Amino acid sequence: MPRPRCERCQRPLAHCLCPLIPHLDSRTRVIVLQHPSETAHALNTARLAALGLVNAELRIGEVFDDLATLLTTPGYRPVLLFPGDEAEVLQAYGQGDDLPLLLIVPDGTWRKARKMLYLNPQLEALPRVTLGAVLPSRYRLRKAPEPGAVSTLEAIVQALNVLEAPAGFDALLRPFEALIDGQIAAMGAETFERNHGQG
After folding, report:
1. DSSP label at 166?
2. What is the DSSP string of 128-164?
3. How would you classify residue 110: left for phi > 0, otherwise alpha for psi between -120 and 50, otherwise beta?
4. Tens of pLDDT along 140-197?
5. Which of 68, 102, 150, 157 could pair with 76 in a Cys bridge, judged by C-beta atoms 3.0 to 4.6 Å apart?
């Protein structure tokens, strides 16, 4: 019989993360487009981001029919958080009255994220933004596929920390770190060191 789960964070009730999830407001609106294959992952970091940010939304799918409406949300300038030669490095909002960003964040493996762009030409056409100096991932359970690779949640936190400085969004990482600590405890320190320790 499956263990009862928290409806909000979707973790087993004994490991509910809701007390650690903050309630943070942001000038930036964050829309996470999650590939359906990501929803079953134990560390569903995109969901944690959407739960912890007041001005955020999580959409699940490969093709998004209401994209045109989403991208014309009044009062925001839509951009895609995705690296590439054309991507502009994020910088803090100016003192003027620039429109805040509607930050579209694909959530999936690189291959699946690229497929989502291909299937949604309006996404592909968006101006791209990227992180400048990427902080190392705190995701100690998975080897990064390449230097500078971070989880979706970490990418969102780093982006907001840059855009909305001096405001900080590191509180969003609390449930993520608790989740990782719990998984390390479950596997045992020795197994963790053997498989994930710094060699």
Report:
1. T
2. EEE-SSPPPP--TTS--SSTT---HHHHHHHHHHHHT
3. alpha
4. 445 544 545 688 999 999 999 999 999 999 999 999 888 887 776 766 656 545 555 5
5. 102
Tokens at 77, concatenated: 């300038």
How sure is the predictor about 26, in pLDDT bands with cuts at 50, 70 and 90? very high
What are the helix (H) ranges across 65-109? 67-71
Count of residues in the chain: 199
Query: Residue 161 forms beta bridges with which residues?
Result: none
DSSP state of 5: B
Of 9, 56, 11, 64, nearest in space to 35 by CA: 64
Cis check: omega of the bond before 166, within 30 degrees of 0: yes
Location of structure tokens 């320190």: 189
Torsion over CA: 58, 62, 65, 68 (sign)? positive
* DSSP bridge pairs for 129: 81, 88
* Per-residue model confidence (pLDDT) at position 6: 86
Residues 60 and 75: their CA atoms lie apart, in Å, by: 24
Neighbours of 35 (CB within 10 A): 19
Q: What pLDDT, on the 0 to 100 scale, is given for residue 188? A: 61
Give the integer Cα–Cα distance in Å for 55 and 152: 16
Cβ neighbours of residue 10 closer than 8 Å, sequence gap 6 or more = 44, 47
Nearest to 53 by CA among 33, 80, 26, 27: 26
